[in-house]
Write a structure and sequence with these properties.
The protein is of the alpha+beta class and 79 residues long. The chain has two helices and five strands; from the N terminus they run E-H-H-E-E-E-E.
Length: 79
């Protein structure tokens, strides 16, 4: 099953403002998560299978896994 990505306009603006390498790293994480969100992420706090962390390079994100969607709700760049 392939999931659909949902982004709040504010999170999307944050994504667009990232440096190219960080934006690429986060895009890879998101593409992997859309194919298999549990395998491409780790627990965010308590492992409830819903709130998950994705990370690559110097960027991390918090995703929320729904029935057929993934929402990126937070991103952090250590740059």
């Amino acid at each position: 099953m392939t999931y659909r990505l949902r982004l709040d306009p504010t999170v999307h603006a944050d994504y667009r403002s990232l440096p190219d390498d960080a934006r690429r790293d986060l895009a890879v994480c998101l593409l992997d998560a859309l194919a298999d969100p549990l395998a491409a992420s780790t627990a965010y706090g308590v492992d409830d299978g819903v709130f998950r962390t994705i990370a690559r390079g110097r960027v991390t994100g918090v995703i929320v896994i729904g029935d057929d969607t993934i929402a990126l709700v937070q991103l952090t760049h250590l740059g």
